[in-house]
Design a protein that fits this description.
It is a single chain. With 114 residues, this protein is an alpha+beta fold. It has one domain. Strands 1-2-3-4-5 form a 5-stranded antiparallel β-sheet. Strand 4 and strand 5 form a beta hairpin. The chain is built from 2 helices and 5 strands; from the N terminus they run αβββββα.
């Protein structure tokens, strides 16, 4: 199920501002922050030029946010070393997407940014 259109527009606005502010302009030829939608989830990822083919950019997943339409809440997920998503249980599901984005930014465990 896809996100409701108004919800998607709001998340796009929030993430555009976040991605723009997180990476300084002078390093955007070396690293970018971006996001993608799939169904009811939004994945936040970092992009970097490939080592041997710098014209090709590779993605490194940072976090995933999933929307539960029945409860109108967002949940935050992190990836393990096998690229499987797991519920990040240090922050409860929230009706406020920004609260979960703050948890990614704070990254008290180092699971999102290393």
């Amino acid at each position: 199920m896809a996100l409701p259109e108004l919800t998607r527009k709001k998340i796009e606005k929030v993430l555009n501002e976040y991605c723009e502010g997180r990476v300084p302009p002078h390093v955007r030829d070396k690293v970018r922050l971006n996001y993608s939608f799939r169904g009811n989830s939004v994945s936040l990822f970092e992009e970097r030029p490939a080592f041997l083919k710098p014209e090709k950019w590779i993605n490194c997943m940072v976090a995933q946010f999933r929307f539960d339409d029945s409860k109108k809440t967002w949940s935050l997920y992190c990836r393990d070393r096998n690229s499987k998503w797991h519920l990040y249980d240090l922050v409860k599901p929230s009706r406020t997407f920004e609260r979960l984005l703050e948890a990614v930014e704070e990254d008290v465990t180092g699971i999102f940014w290393g």
